[in-house]
Write a structure and sequence with these properties.
Keywords: Membrane, Transmembrane, Transmembrane helix. The chain crosses the membrane at residues 6-22, 34-55. This is Signal transduction histidine kinase. It comes from Paenibacillus macquariensis. The protein is mainly α. 80% of the residues lie in helices and 0% in strands. The chain has 2 helices and no strands. The protein is elongated, with a radius of gyration of 14 Å.
Length: 59
């Protein structure tokens, strides 16, 4: 797996989570639920990719 694309995905996932937390009052409630669910899934995948890269670091 390309490490640069993985790093970009991890940064974007955490940036989306940060934007949702900082702008939670200005996002409409119907859109807020789906964006939060998307951000949670992306952050979960980012954590899995971080752990996977640490496991494969010695290989």
């Amino acid at each position: 797996m390309d490490p640069s694309s993985t790093l970009i995905f991890i940064i974007l996932a955490f940036a989306l989570g940060g934007v949702l937390i900082m702008g939670k009052n200005s996002i409409p409630p119907s859109l807020k639920r789906w964006m939060a669910l998307t951000a949670i899934i992306m952050i979960l995948i980012a954590f899995i990719l971080i752990v996977f890269s640490f496991i494969n670091m010695g290989s």
